[in-house]
Write a structure and sequence with these properties.
Strand 6 and strand 7 form a beta hairpin. Helix content is 28%, strand content 24%. The structure holds guanosine-5'-triphosphate and magnesium ion.
Length: 472
């Protein structure tokens, strides 16, 4: 799990500490659990430490002690201690508050988490605190009245939003010497082409120009959207459709219900309204699968192979068979799926059940068997990270998104580059270039993979001596 303290803030702390040093993460509540005994087990006797709180208002604050933490139930005397604020409401805003009452710089108690100052100025928590969702409501107390520190006119609100509701708390051991170079967390975790209007237009042009490989009879690449109910499959089609429509549309029904909103198999084409032509791909929208309600795996095989017709009404009680009216008996390459996109709600990655994971694995076996490329559209980024909610341009610098991408890649057994973060249009009333860029980049990757797949199929057919220009 990456460390949260960015290079910029590390450099600031080093300046304040006033000697060449670096930081080693020794305790992190999201990783180790928010528990006083664990904190002391990991941090007591470690020498100088920095405690950093990340609150849900995007404010980063904490304290430095040059003396070790202990569990003795007594004050820690430290003439070098200071409290600090690094970031306030999402903006870098560093301030140092030096110790004034050195005898009460810290307080070491076996049942207390990190505690600073008489009063106490910052008393993080006692005992054990369980997370609720992605946050921890720390049960300590925040006064920051400057009992033992010089606040320079600041107060508990301007330093910490008077909030102990944190997404994380980390304790770093301070080690003398320069240490290794730390990755710059402000640098993007994935290369991307930027967020300009030009990037957006270039992507749009490239999708408009897209044609499947000419050696095949395929006129449109088929991308299957598959995943749990409510993950955003239909919204993905609506979003892409909106981009080329030039305004927000919602042709496919979307919403949140107990059972899948989508009940019909639809092979959607997208029309560009400025040029009046259809794009050469189809987004194939399926019924979502539910916790206790599996998709019939054989039905999915029929979709992959092109046996199921457009507008087939899914019936969970009566799965599709070759006797079902509309069954396409001799599908060829143009009817088949050429790339699969698992649509996964990014905000539920941490709580994805074993049943759901197993279901997706079972489907993957069928896809692997056919050599089908697979990607993940990781949706609802706005719910993973407040910075992304503010502005999707923060997607590739957000550690929360980076974490979710890594986790999904691991669950699905796919390379990280196949996990494509997107934010669908849902509450917006106007198109936004940054959203368009994420959506179109994801689509472009799918089409590249679809081409690879068709290429591979052609090679295979050639090797088997079949006529690649098969009848229509
Ligand atoms: N915040 C947020 N909400 C989203 C996003 N994408 C989809 N939604 C919402 O999630 C809900 C479900 O979206 P759908 O597109 O209907 O999901 P689906 O996968 O088609 O679901 P079923 O057809 O029921 O299987 C809707 O209320 C959408 O508005 C997103 O990126 N961010
Ligand atoms: Mg749907």
């Amino acid at each position: 799990m990456p460390e949260l303290l960015s290079k910029k803030y590390r450099d600031q702390l080093v300046t304040w500490i006033g000697r060449t040093c670096h930081f080693q993460l020794v305790y992190k509540i999201s990783r180790d659990g928010c528990s006083a005994p664990t904190f002391h087990q990991k941090c007591d006797g470690q020498g100088a430490t920095v405690t950093v709180l990340y609150n849900t208002n995007n404010t980063i604050y904490g304290g430095y002690l040059s003396q070790s933490w202990n569990s003795n139930g007594g004050w820690i005397n430290d003439p070098n201690a200071f409290l600090f604020r690094l970031q306030y409401n999402g903006s870098s805003n560093p301030l140092k508050f030096p110790v004034t009452g050195t005898g009460n710089a810290g307080y070491g108690h076996s049942n207390y988490g990190p505690t600073f100052g008489g009063g106490h100025d910052i008393y993080t928590f006692s005992g054990t605190v369980s997370p609720s969702g992605k946050a921890f409501s720390l049960n300590g107390g925040l006064t920051i009245l400057g009992h033992s520190y010089n606040l320079n006119g600041q107060n508990v609100n301007t330093i910490a939003n008077n909030s102990l509701e944190v997404t994380n708390l980390e304790v770093y051991k301070v080690i003398d010497g320069p240490g290794q170079t730390v990755p710059d967390l402000d640098k993007p975790w994935r290369e991307h082409d930027g967020w300009t209007n030009e990037t957006m237009q270039a992507l749009k042009e490239s999708l408009l120009d897209y044609k499947p490989m000419t050696e095949t009879n395929v006129t449109a690449a088929n991308i299957l959207l598959i995943g749990q109910i409510g993950a955003g499959k239909s919204s993905f089609f609506n979003s892409v459709n909106s981009i080329f429509r030039g305004k927000i549309t919602s042709k496919a029904c979307s919403g949140s219900f107990e059972h899948s909103v989508t009940t019909m198999y639809r092979q959607y084409k997208v029309k560009d309204f400025s040029k009046g032509k259809f794009l050469n791909f189809r987004l194939c929208d399926t019924r979502g699968f539910e916790e206790e309600f599996a998709l019939d795996a054989q039905e999915i095989s029929f979709i992959l192979d092109g046996n199921i017709p457009d507008r087939y009404q899914f019936n969970p009680l009566v799965p599709f068979t070759p006797d079902t009216p509309g069954y396409i008996k001799d599908p060829n390459m143009k009817d088949k799926i050429h790339c699969v996109a698992f649509v996964i709600d990014g905000s539920t990655v941490d709580v994805m059940s074993d049943t759901v994971q197993k279901r997706m694995k079972d489907l993957q076996v069928r896809m692997n068997h056919r050599g089908l490329p697979q990607v993940v559209f990781l949706t609802k980024l706005d719910k993973i990270c407040p910075d992304v909610n503010d502005d999707v341009k923060n997607t590739f610098t957000s550690t929360a998104v980076c974490d979710a991408v890594e986790k999904v890649a691991e669950i699905m057994g796919l390379p990280r580059a196949h996990v494509l973060p997107v934010k669908n249009y849902e509450s917006e009333t106007k198109l936004k270039p940054a959203l368009d860029i994420l959506l179109m980049q994801a689509l472009q990757r799918c089409l590249d993979f679809a081409d690879d797949y068709m290429d591979e199929q052609l090679d295979k057919m050639a090797a088997e001596g079949k006529n690649v220009q098969s009848k229509d």
